[in-house]
Specification:
mainly alpha, Arc Repressor Mutant, subunit A, single chain, 2 domains, two-stranded antiparallel ribbon, 187 residues, two-stranded antiparallel sheet, 12% strand
Length: 187
């Protein structure tokens, strides 16, 4: 196991036939998947890049499109999508175009198209998995509820990492969570 806790390695081939190996964390919201993960590391990068090859998109659009592709069985968080887009931009596979209001729309580059072509079998496999999940995937928990739960977990992790949580702040957070639990029980 790598020091960051990942257990798999993603290997892809670029247009020049060079192999790239990437290690790192897996992320996003999911149910099921192989060994508890919906994607092996790097597969989400390929899926996102293939979606950008269809048409330019904003990060939020990609979140929704991935969620729709997998029938609600997987919904990547902003904390997964935006670093993925940054990585694709850094590698030259995608380019960000600034829009009014500070939003960025991403599009695939020629180098990204070549990378997709070199990894077509992997992309086709991901798309097939999406069709299977989207068509017959179990939807036990509505996607918006899964998204909200993951957003809460992320907010808590970030707040707790900041440290210096006073007893009053801890009590306020606990009271808010207890009230949310009561609301869910009454629904």
């Amino acid at each position: 196991m790598h020091r960051y806790g990942c257990q798999s390695r993603f290997t892809a081939t670029d247009e020049a036939g060079r192999h790239h190996h990437s290690w790192g964390r897996h992320g996003g919201r999911h149910r099921g998947g192989r060994a508890g993960r919906f994607f092996d590391y790097g597969e989400l990068r390929l899926l996102i890049l293939s979606m950008l090859a269809e048409r330019p998109r904003h990060g939020y659009e990609l979140i929704k499109d991935v969620e729709e592709t997998f029938g609600g069985a997987y919904s990547p968080s902003p904390g997964v999508i935006y670093p993925t887009l940054s990585w694709l931009d850094d590698m030259g596979y995608a380019a960000a175009e600034a829009e009014e209001g500070g939003r960025k729309r991403y599009r695939v580059t020629e180098e990204g198209e070549a990378f997709l072509a070199a990894n077509r079998a992997a992309v086709d496999g991901l798309r097939a998995r999406g069709r299977e999940a989207g068509g017959g995937g179990r939807r036990e928990v509505p996607a918006q509820v899964v998204r909200a739960m993951e957003n809460l977990k992320l907010a808590l992790r970030l707040r707790l990492r900041q440290g210096g949580l006073t007893p009053e702040a801890a009590e306020a957070i606990a009271a808010t969570l207890d009230e949310a639990a009561r609301t869910v029980e009454r629904s």
